[in-house]
Amino acid sequence: MKILITGINGFVGKILKPELESEGHVVSGLDLESKGTDTLAVDITDPSAVEKAFFQLEPDYVFHLAAISRIDFDNPQNLYNINVNGTVNCLSAASKLKNKPSFILTHQIHPKLPLSIQIFKKFVYKLHYKLLEKFSHILVPDFSGNINLTGELSHETTFKKLSYIGPLSRFQKSNNIKTGKFVSDILIIISGPEPLRSQFEKIILNQVKEIKDKKIIIIRGKPKHNKETEIEGIQIINHLNSTDMYTALMNTDIVISRAGYSTVMDLIILQKKALLIPT
């Protein structure tokens, strides 16, 4: 199969490309910079450039990964152009390829809006539904039925071309659990965009100092730093790889973290008790 990855030079793209190639697929990519003969330098906010690239490469499948993964408070227009308009451009180009089905993976069929813009709810929902209808099928990483994770976000919908595929996680629960230095009574995972991440960390540090006779580990969520320290008996780690994170999660009594959906799915798969802080 001929597979196209947008944002191929990003974190997920670098992992996905060799995996697909190992299965015998021919992989090409789009990114802002071309880093090889199989990658085209294309700005996804340019609809004509995206369409030209799609017709040139004629992929059988497209993995659309090009996006800004953090909330850019300083430049919200750039965030919108890339994550919304860029996605629309890729979707439009893919729809013009003959007999190419398209799928979207999302847990927000009915996104919740801040109170300050509730007045625009009907307009936003109409635009959102129009975009979803362009796909051949919608995949929701959640349980079907009354007992589920997303509630009103993804349920009670009239979309017929929709399937609930269950939670997705990088982890798989195993009975073979390693121990070691990542054993704790309380595991606290700090995450989120700056400055919210730092604000969350400051509040947590001030509060956990009041907890006595408990082994506490704090993961700061700073992947570019490998420093590990200890403050008043609290083990503070900047970042853990997936293997060590799994070990830490399985060797704690309770997890404290933000309620990001990826984290929620991880905790459900691993069946861990948690105190979740709304994002």
What does the model show?
This protein is α/β, with parallel strands linked by helices. It contains seven helices and 13 strands. The strands form three sheets. A six-stranded mixed sheet has the order 10-11-9-8-12-13, with helices on one face. It has a four-stranded parallel sheet with strand order 3-2-1-4, with helices on both faces. Strands 5-6-7 form a three-stranded parallel sheet, with no helix packed on it. A hairpin with a 2-residue loop joins strand 10 and strand 11 (234-237). Helix 2 runs parallel beside helix 3. The chain is globular, with a radius of gyration of 21 Å.
- For the largest sheet, list the strands in their spatial order: 10-11-9-8-12-13
Question: What form results from the Cα inertia axes?
Answer: globular
Q: What is the chain-wise order of helices and strands?
A: EHEEHEHEHEEEHEEEHEHE
Distance between the termini: 39 Å
Number of strands: 13
Average of pLDDT = 89
Helix and strand content put the structural class at: alpha/beta
What descriptors fit this protein?
4-stranded parallel beta sheet, 279 residues, 20% strand, alpha/beta, 6-stranded mixed beta sheet, globular
